Amino acid sequence: MKTDANVVHLNKATAEQSPTSPVGRLPVALIQVRDKAAQQLKQSLQSLFDNADDTLFEMADRATSNAEQNAFFEAMRDLRLKRKNIERGFLQKVFESFANLNQYEIGKPQPALDAVSFDSLSLVQNDELEESVAVDTMVAKVMSRAAQPLGHLTTRMNALISKKLDDKSNPLGPHALCDYFIEASSSLGVQIKVKLIIFKLFEKHVLGDIDQLYAEANQTLVAAGILPELQSAPPRRQQRPGGPAASHTSPATHSQPVHVDEGLQEAAFSALHNLLSDLRGSSVLPARNVPSDAIPISSGDLLRLLSHMQTRAPQTVDDFDLQEQLGSLLSRVSAKTGKSRVVGEIDDDVINLVSMLFEFILDDRTLPDSLKALIGRLQIPLLKVAVIDKTFFSRGSHPARRLLNEIASAAMGWGDQDEAQRDSLYQKIEQIVARLLNDFVDDPAIFSELLADFLAFIGDERRRSELLEQRTRDAEEGRAKAEIARQEVEYALNQRLLGKTLPEVVVRLLQEAWSKVLLLTCLKHGTQSEEWQAALDTMDDLVWSVTPHEDDESRARLLELVPSLLKALREGLVSAAFDPFSTGDFFTQLEALHVQTLQRIQQPQATPGASGPAADASGESIAAAAVEAAPTMVEVVDEIVLLAPGESREPEPEISLPDNDEALIQVDNLRVGSWVEFQEDEEHKLRCKLAAVIKPTGKYIFVNRTGMKVLEKTRMGLASEFQRGAIRLLNDTLLFDRALESVIGNLRKLKNT
User: Fold this and answer.
1) Torsion angles phi and psi, residue 711, rounded to 5
2) Domain tally for the chain?
3) Domain for residue 640, yes or no?
4) What is residue 15's DSSP assignment?
5) Which residues contact 90 (CB under 8 A, 6 or more apart)?
6) DSSP state of 230
7) Which segments within 213-372 are labelled E, that is strand?
8) Are 689 and 679 in contact (CB under 8 A)?
9) Alpha helix (H) residue ranges in 629-734
10) 101: how many CB neighbours lie within 10 A of its CB?
């Protein structure tokens, strides 16, 4: 069969490379999705690189220095040379990800994020953090506008494959696409400033049209009969490359209610409506006392009443009963019109649901009390949203739901503070609440606008906190290294000195001065190095040189050893920048010790052959001189402990618990990034996040919301806190979703009782 030589099949290379590839086991519909997506992604990448030259040239033209200009020109050159490899590598990752969809990855090691070991300490550079923040921002933007079609695509793919996918692991999800591009472009030797520009181009030309890709992929699967009942909103249209550069559409353009399948949404809300209907007339939902001639008000009239209440909403929600206030307004309307007016059954269900949701939210222990008061004031605006758009209850990507969830997530680490100490986060949430109460009438677009603004705000805050948190981790890792090194030095000193009686000056020299040389050597070269062994040998030689010896061989060795020993000691102390005055004093005393040692070796040689009064007199004078100049001796009976300036080593009282103890299991289940709350005393609580587990020292390092260290605990110390109930793990799941799940669960439980 002949084929056109100019036609290039995107999947051909992959299929040829791996004869046993599972591509053939993929459903035909998924192969179609893969090939269409690859074609679009290839075109988008080409558009990216076509525009990269112009963008980088423009940046070079605006550069303020020659070095900066050269960096942009070098980047242009590097990008041209590696363009094809990047395109090829990116598409290869797409094909590989699809090929693995029907394969379980057995035994694949998972990255350990929960602990930092001394053997594998690695520093995350600021550049990497910049890159990470940029990627998170790109992903967040895609998810803010395309969460629904991506979710539908993931659901449909799960119906076809054996491996369980979520939006993050979907081969076409923004997380995966960003990872492909980062890996494919890893060979680029460009500065972070240039890399961020390239990421912006990737966001514009590749992720900017991702909505269309998801729409076409969903349509392909629908045509194959895969979950046709799921209907996504039509994708927004963007200008294709080639025309004027299309800027990203304002979030407000996506704020209109998503026109999803009416039947699906009705089914979602209908389930909630049925639950409430079954409980109507019970103690949970007492039957409404509705006059027989009562006329239900329209949803529009209800919105106007809610807007009236919204402008007069109290600052605190403790004594605010929405339904009571609404009933009072309806009574006034009824009296004014002469006709009994009530809320329609559907709208009444919406009011009940929102009230239950806020009951949960205001009782939630994860939210700080002061922020509960702010979030509680959003009850009427969110109720109005639910009246306008019933998808509010069933669509996780709804801007109003996302705004509430993002506020709650950001507030996780915020502690209650005095008025004067309220920080920028509190003020930002306060502004959002005020804006909604003042400006929101019936256009939900305001939620998308506020969501985008808040995401940008917390993105900046997160970036700053991550930088500080990384510095905190680096400092703690440095402390861990220093602590391990100190322990090694302590062991070496105690091994050689403990239990021995030596000249006081030598003990001081080793403990105060040579310990610093050993510490620096250990930190710089490690305990397996030649430098470390040489430092230990010098210490051994020093101890031997001041130990009494009685033979000629020892005298000869001492005479030979002293010059090199003094040289090694001087060089070591100079390298450790030890005080030169103290060094000079040490060496003066050390030379005197060596002279006395030599004299003690010589003395026995003269004594045996000597006789008579002259000899006796000579011996007595030598002995007297020796006694007169005898050095101060000390016995090392206590273990040597080296402390940093201002440090006191008072070990935290440790409890002993079996490995299967519940408190220890709770500690071991803590992961880096987990938020906890410590009950410091009856009135004060401390919220902090586990930033690192330093295994060599067994320290758990906690930071506050800004990334600053606030606490450190040992494993047993944390277990003790869990045992006495002084520590509580904070639930970091989405607030609205958690509240809705709780409400539905309670309604079902009440229905079955």
Assistant:
1) -160, 150
2) 4
3) no
4) H
5) 41, 45, 180, 181, 184
6) -
7) 295-297, 341-343
8) no
9) 662-668, 715-723
10) 23
- CB of 138 closer than 8 Å to CB of 202: yes
Is residue 334 assigned to a domain?
Answer: yes
Residue 246 belongs to a domain: no
pLDDT computed for residue 624 by the predictor:
43
Question: Residue 536's pLDDT is what?
Answer: 92
Question: What is the number of alpha carbons within 13 Å of residue 743 lying toward its C-beta?
Answer: 26
Nearest to 145 by CA among 16, 232, 50, 268: 232
pLDDT score of 530: 92
Residues 591, 705, single domain; the answer is: no
DSSP labels, 52-78: HHHHHHHHHHT-SSHHHHHHHHHHHHH
Q: Give how far Cα 711 sits from Cα of 126, 229, 280, 457, 702, Å.
A: 24, 52, 50, 27, 5
Instruction: Work out the number of other CB atoms within 10 angstroms of the CB of residue 635.
Output: 12
| Residue 27: closest CA among 149, 151, 148, 156 | 156
Q: Pick the closest to residue 513 from 489, 537, 481, 534 (CA basis).
A: 489
pLDDT of residue 286: 66
Question: 232-261 pLDDT, tens per residue?
Answer: 666 654 444 333 333 333 333 333 333 344
Residue numbers of the chain with a pLDDT score lower than 50: 1-24, 105-124, 237-266, 418-420, 605-628
DSSP state of 692: E
Token readout for 75 is 């980047």
User: Cβ(21)–Cβ(162) under 8 Å?
Assistant: no
Beta bridge partners of 503: 633
Token output for 15? 């299929």
Same domain, yes or no, for 80 and 210? yes
Q: For position 403, what pLDDT does the model report?
A: 92
Q: Which domain holds residue 505?
A: 499-635
633: phi then psi, degrees, rounded to nearest 5: -105, 145
The DSSP 8-state label assigned to residue 531 in this structure reads: H
Report d(CA 131, CA 137) in Å as an integer. Answer: 10
pLDDT of residue 103: 65
Q: Which residues of 114-124 are buried (b: 16+ CB within 10 A; e: fewer)?
A: eebeeeebeee
**165-171-176 Cα angle (round to 5):** 105
Q: Which of 595, 637, 633 is nearest to 506 (CA)?
A: 633
Q: Which residues contact 728 (CB under 8 A, 6 or more apart)?
A: 365, 676, 677, 679
